[in-house]
């Protein structure tokens, strides 16, 4: 529930209105700059905190002495929509992956994704497994052989229990990267990106109609709409909005709001109660509007350094917050008032995420990147 889902912004200068073929349209005189989009970092932090609130307040984890609605009579309902942070992550991921891939070969794209995904993830898997083995918080045991498979990030397709429940989203992200690598392999252009969006959307609809498990795994008919819309938003940002891109985004929104009925039913199963559906649609609308504001350049003034730092924390926070947080709650809920415990726990998790980013993710990513680039050079040389 990385992309803080695992997305990293590597932004070119923002181009200007197309003056020629789709592949060559740019905005060289727009005054754009290289760097991160702070507004997207802020949205990533917001999405991560939504997921944290859902797991700590609304999810039926059993770590509180009483059912969550009784423990949090006011906060339960807002927190019960925190699972939607995952959909916001996917939407941002489509935007950022398209941006990160531009001008890169498929090998460079692969190295950038591996170095982004795995260092913090390896640490998260080992740390969560060790902590929950020593101080179990829920009635589940982690077998060493399952932990070992989790290190590959392939536990979902292999039917192995995940070390942490939130890791299911990483398999979704990985499949998106593999699909997007198809156009990175050919060379990413405006024309190919638009074609990719259209073809994936129609293929996803076909997959939903035929209910074929293999097609579902490849085309992700329930989640593809967020990635496709994110790609279209990036094309608006990089070039300019046009009717075709708005039709892609609008179609994705219309399908996604309907598909969320099933996702909400699953979330309600975890919570153990029903909640109104209209806030789900309202939040999805706000997500699309927020990313549209970024795509249209309406958020340029939000160039705040702390947002960039916050964006870097979201992936480690996402990886470690659930089981470790439940453990802390189970062992301290009777000693600390709940409305003191929750904000303190979130602050501690944010600090832990910064430590993971600073002392694990950054140095290990750099070393892994050097090794992979050297290996790629040797492979090309035969």
Radius of gyration: 21 Å
The major beta sheet can be summarized as: none
Q: What's the number of helices?
A: 15
Q: Approximately how much helix is present in the residues?
A: 55-70%
Hey, roughly how much beta strand do the residues contain? under 5%
Describe the structure.
The structure is a single chain. With 382 residues, the chain is mainly α. The protein has one domain. The chain has helices spanning 38-58, 68-71, 76-79, 85-101, 106-134, 144-150, 155-158, 168-186, 190-210, 213-219, 224-238, 243-271, 278-295, 305-332, 338-381. The radius of gyration is 21 Å and the shape is globular. Mean pLDDT is 88; it is low at 10-35.
Q: Which properties best describe this structure?
A:
single chain, 382 residues, mainly alpha, 0% strand
Show the helix and strand layout.
Layout lengths: L37 H21 L9 H4 L4 H4 L5 H17 L4 H29 L9 H7 L4 H4 L9 H19 L3 H21 L2 H7 L4 H15 L4 H29 L6 H18 L9 H28 L5 H44 L1
Summarize, please.
This protein is mostly helical. Helices cover 70% and strands 0% of the residues. The chain has one domain.
């Amino acid at each position: 529930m990385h992309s803080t889902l695992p997305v990293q912004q590597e932004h070119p200068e923002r181009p200007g209105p197309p003056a020629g073929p789709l592949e060559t349209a740019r905005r060289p005189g727009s005054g754009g700059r290289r760097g991160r989009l702070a507004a997207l970092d802020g949205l990533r932090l917001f999405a991560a905190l939504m997921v944290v609130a859902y797991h700590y307040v609304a999810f039926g984890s059993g770590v509180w002495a009483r059912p969550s609605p009784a423990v949090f009579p006011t906060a339960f309902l807002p927190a019960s929509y925190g699972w939607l942070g995952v959909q916001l992550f996917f939407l941002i991921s489509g935007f950022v992956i398209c941006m990160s891939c531009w001008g890169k070969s498929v090998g460079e794209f692969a190295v950038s994704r591996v170095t982004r995904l795995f260092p913090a993830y390896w640490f998260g898997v080992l740390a969560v497994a060790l902590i929950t083995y020593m101080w179990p918080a829920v009635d589940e045991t982690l077998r060493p052989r399952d932990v070992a498979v989790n290190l590959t990030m392939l536990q979902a397709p292999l039917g192995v229990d995940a070390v942490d429940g939130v890791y299911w989203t990483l398999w979704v992200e990985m499949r998106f990267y593999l699909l997007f690598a198809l156009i990175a392999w050919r060379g990413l252009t405006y024309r190919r990106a638009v074609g990719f969006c259209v073809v994936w959307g129609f293929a996803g609809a076909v997959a939903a109609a035929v209910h074929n498990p293999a097609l579902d795994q490849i085309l992700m008919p329930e989640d593809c709409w967020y990635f496709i819309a994110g790609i279209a938003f990036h094309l608006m940002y990089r070039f300019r909005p046009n009717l075709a891109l708005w039709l892609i985004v609008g179609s994705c929104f219309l399908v996604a709001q309907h598909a969320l009925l099933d996702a909400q039913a699953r979330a309600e199963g975890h919570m153990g109660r029903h909640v109104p559906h209209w806030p789900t649609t309202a939040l999805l609308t706000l997500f699309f509007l927020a990313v549209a504001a970024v795509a249209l350049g309406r958020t340029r003034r939000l160039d705040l350094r702390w947002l960039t730092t916050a964006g870097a924390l979201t992936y480690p926070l996402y990886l470690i917050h659930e089981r470790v947080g439940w453990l802390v709650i189970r062992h301290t809920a009777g000693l600390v008032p709940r409305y003191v415990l929750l904000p303190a726990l979130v602050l501690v998790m944010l600090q832990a995420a910064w430590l993971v980013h600073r002392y694990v993710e950054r140095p290990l990513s750099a070393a892994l990147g050097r090794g992979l680039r050297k290996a790629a050079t040797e492979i090309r040389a035969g």
